[in-house]
Design brief:
By secondary structure, the chain is an alpha+beta fold. Helices cover 59% and strands 13% of the residues. Strands 2-4-5-7-6 form a five-stranded mixed β-sheet. A hairpin with a 2-residue loop joins strand 4 and strand 5. The longest helix has 61 residues. The chain is elongated, with a radius of gyration of 29 Å.
């Protein structure tokens, strides 16, 4: 039977695979130990799948219950293999198995099918992990790049802002006027973008939470104060409703940022002379915060995009589309969830849930 042939001629199969791969799919300079790192184990898992199908016991897991192929995909990314080369490696292993088996005798259709299924499973796990690790690394590099640029912009911006304030204090420029207001708003917008970019970069690369006990009442007072000025300017009332407030141990800075972004976002998109509601409770080990606005509802397709960076829910409004993305990443860092319920013709309810 095929599992017996492969067990007896295991080293031959591995050498056959190595001959097919080294110098073609893999550089000849790669040490044999790294080249062969996962292949012997994966071959053992194929043998185990054949034994299991034959009704025989096996202590080795089958490919679908193993992490060997995923580890192979991650390693190949680190070694600089292309995704195409990773897939072809499994094709070479399939050929090495079948050629060795045919040399030893006839291979049944069922056994060939099992080998093919195992190879396909291996490809799926290896490619999935390869792609995942590649995306993580690309995101990390992008975050570092954005954070570097934002950090480098901070110093000249601070210098310009300070110089502008000093000139104003000395009477060198008018204390008010449309042009002065435009400069102030421009400086503040750039400062906000830099702060948001740094915050989203820190969150995306993973951060250590600094937990401390707080209450929702304290959090709500802070975020309401931050949104009050814009709300008053649009004639929007902010209605705060607190349920049971047992408090929670959270990263206060991140949670305050998340709730603050939700509330400011609601005020920004809500129609003038209406109401934004901020509701919350902290009980039974769970924090639930709801922000309900009167924006008129989201356009088709916007619900799915709501928490993606640089997506603006209403293109008529200015801004950079980072507020909801920052809120989501702060919630993710706590192991919580955030979602939006669209009420066409009325508005939206953003719901934030955190383990307390």
């Amino acid at each position: 039977m095929l599992h017996q042939v492969l067990a007896e001629r295991r080293d031959e199969v591995i050498q056959h695979w190595k001959d097919k791969v080294q110098g073609t799919l893999a550089p000849e300079t790669i040490p044999p130990m790294e080249l062969l790192d996962h292949v012997p184990r994966f071959l053992d898992e194929i043998i185990a799948a054949l034994r299991t199908d034959a009704g025989l016991p096996s202590t080795t897991p089958c490919p679908e219950n193993s992490t060997t192929a995923a580890g192979h995909g991650e390693q190949r990314l680190r070694l600089g293999f292309s995704l195409d080369a990773v897939v072809r490696e499994y094709g070479a292993l399939r050929n090495a198995i079948l050629e060795t088996a045919r040399d030893a005798g006839e291979v049944s259709f069922r056994e060939t099918q099992i080998v093919f299924d195992c190879i396909i499973t291996g490809i799926a796990y290896a490619v999935s992990e390869y792609a995942h690790q590649r995306d993580v690394e690309q995101q990390r590099q992008a975050n570092e790049h954005f954070a570097f640029i934002a950090h480098e912009l901070r110093n000249p911006l601070s210098t310009v802002t300070l110089a502008f304030a000093q000139l104003r204090a000395q009477g060198a420029i008018p204390s008010d006027g449309r042009e002065v207001g435009a400069i102030e708003r421009g400086l503040q917008s750039v400062s906000d973008l830099i702060d948001q970019t740094l915050r989203i970069a820190r969150l995306s690369t993973g951060i250590e939470l600094h937990r401390q006990f707080t209450t929702l009442r304290a959090l709500f007072e802070d975020v309401e104060l931050g949104a009050r000025s814009e709300a008053d300017g649009k004639g929007i009332a902010i209605k705060v409703t607190l349920g049971e407030d047992q408090g929670a141990s959270v990263d206060v800075r991140l949670v305050r940022s998340a709730v603050g972004n939700l509330l400011r976002n609601a005020v920004k998109y809500t129609h003038p002379q209406t109401t934004v509601e901020l509701r919350g409770s902290a009980t039974n080990g769970r924090i639930v915060v709801e922000v309900e606005d009167c924006c008129g509802g989201l356009e088709p397709g916007k619900v799915e995009q709501a928490f993606a960076p640089f997506v603006r829910l209403d293109t008529k409004q200015d801004g950079f589309g980072l507020g909801l993305a920052i809120a989501k990443q702060a919630v993710d860092a706590h192991g919580g969830t955030i979602r939006v319920q669209n009420i066409p013709g009325k508005g939206c309810i953003f719901v934030l849930e955190l383990p307390a």
